[in-house]
Structure formats: structure tokens, C-alpha cells
């Protein structure tokens, strides 16, 4: 459902989520190939801290030059180390970024024109973004697969990968809250077939008035 404090979003929204390393980007790209608008909260999170943005200025003022690269961009690895070692700093950062991300997300949702729109957010449930969604879809893989993919993709340690997974909502809780689930621990051709089937179901749902 949509929050009553904002004007209604004109087309219905599919919230797509899953833990780190579950393959959300791969699945969302398949929806894009079906001419569905995809709004990715991770991309928006990068946009609100780009050079010369209000978000980056506030971060550099709070944490100092150590979180900036020589070219003035955000040093994400350094910031990640700080906030995972200090809960208070993580809370400060979340309090800064979440409203900025939410505002940009709502702007993009209102401007989408496809039959429905996919909102991709790793913390969809944790950050209350499901309130803007009409259905939710969880991309699911076993935790061992999450670890393997995250370590390989991000060149991070197993300890840090485990810390990131532990900081997210549990796999079980996500599955319990989902309207739909895709098992992404199988060949991509099989995943694509499931998405085609879901897409047909979504197109058949009544349009929002």
C-alpha cells in the first residue's frame, strides 16, 4: 500500500528484495528487458552521495577527509569499515541517507510509465519501503551461496560478508513477508522462465485507479 502522506503513485509497484549476493541486479535486468521500469535503491543511494551533493558534504564534514578519495568521491570501503565497527556512526549515517534516498525514490516512482514498476531495495522491509509497494518479490538463495558470491564479487573477507548478512533481515523473515519468491540458486534460463510467468501474472493484475 502507499503511504497516505504522499500522493498516490499512478502505477502499481513491485518491491524486489533479497539478501546480499542473491542476484537482485540479475533479476531486475530481466524485468527491464520486458520493458518494465526498474528503480534501484542502491543506485539512488550512490546518487545522493555523488561529488558536490548535500549528502557527501554532510558525510565528509562528520567523518573527515578519511572517507574521501583523492578525486573527491566517497571512499565506500573506508566508510563501510567505520560504520560496521561503530553502531552509533552507522545510525548517524542511516539517519542522514534514508530520507534522501526515500525522497528520490518517491520522485522516480511517480514518474514511471511502464505497466508496473519494480522497486529494487536490499532493505525493502527493514526501511519500511514496502509501504509504497503493492506486491513484494524476494530473490532467495542459501546463505552459503550468498557468502560465496559476495566474497567473489566484492573481494571482501568472509568475516565482513557474514557481518553484512547478519545485519540484514533474516532469510526466513524475508520469505515469510514475501508475496512471491524466486529461487535464484539454479540456471539463469530457469530463472528467466519464472520471471516470464510472474510478468504475465503481473500484467493481468488490475491497473491502479
TrEMBL record:
Intracellular or extracellular location(s): Cytoplasm
Species of origin: Pseudoalteromonas arctica
Protein's pathway: Cofactor biosynthesis; coenzyme A biosynthesis; CoA from (R)-pantothenate: step 5/5
A single GO BP: coenzyme A biosynthetic process
Enzyme Commission identifier(s): 2.7.1.24
Similarity field: Belongs to the CoaE family.
Superkingdom per UniProt: Bacteria
Role description: Catalyzes the phosphorylation of the 3'-hydroxyl group of dephosphocoenzyme A to form coenzyme A.
Lineage, opening ranks: Bacteria, Pseudomonadati, Pseudomonadota, Gammaproteobacteria, Alteromonadales
GO cellular component: cytoplasm
InterPro entries attached to this UniProt entry: Depp_CoAkinase, P-loop_NTPase
Keyword field contains Phosphoprotein: no
UniProt entry keywords in alphabetical sequence: ATP-binding, Coenzyme A biosynthesis, Cytoplasm, Kinase, Nucleotide-binding, Transferase
Record keyword tRNA processing present: no
Positions with a binding annotation for ATP: 21-26
EC category name: transferase
UniProt name for this protein: Dephospho-CoA kinase
Reactions listed under catalytic activity: 3'-dephospho-CoA + ATP = ADP + CoA + H(+)
Example GO molecular function: dephospho-CoA kinase activity
Amino acid at each position: 500500500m502507499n503511504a497516505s502522506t504522499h500522493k498516490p503513485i499512478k502505477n502499481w509497484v513491485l518491491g524486489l528484495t533479497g539478501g546480499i549476493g542473491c542476484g537482485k541486479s540479475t533479476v531486475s535486468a530481466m524485468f527491464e528487458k520486458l520493458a518494465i521500469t526498474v528503480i534501484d535503491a542502491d543506485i539512488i543511494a550512490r546518487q545522493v552521495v555523488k561529488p558536490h551533493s548535500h549528502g557527501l558534504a554532510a558525510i565528509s564534514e562528520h567523518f573527515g577527509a578519511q572517507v574521501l578519495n583523492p578525486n573527491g568521491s566517497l571512499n565506500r570501503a573506508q566508510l563501510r569499515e567505520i560504520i560496521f565497527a561503530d553502531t552509533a556512526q552507522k545510525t548517524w549515517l542511516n539517519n542522514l541517507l534514508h530520507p534522501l534516498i526515500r525522497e528520490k525514490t518517491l520522485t522516480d516512482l511517480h514518474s514511471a510509465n511502464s505497466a508496473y514498476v519494480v522497486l529494487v531495495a536490499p532493505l525493502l522491509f527493514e526501511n519500511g519501503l514496502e509501504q509504497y509497494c503493492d506486491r513484494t518479490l524476494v530473490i532467495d538463495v542459501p546463505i552459503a551461496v550468498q557468502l560465496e558470491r559476495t566474497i567473489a564479487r566484492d573481494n571482501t573477507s568472509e568475516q565482513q560478508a557474514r557481518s553484512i548478512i547478519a545485519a540484514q533481515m533474516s532469510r526466513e523473515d524475508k520469505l515469510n513477508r514475501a508475496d512471491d519468491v524466486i529461487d535464484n540458486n539454479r540456471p539463469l534460463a530457469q530463472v528467466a522462465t519464472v520471471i516470464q510467468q510472474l510478468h504475465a501474472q503481473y500484467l493481468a493484475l488490475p491497473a491502479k485507479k
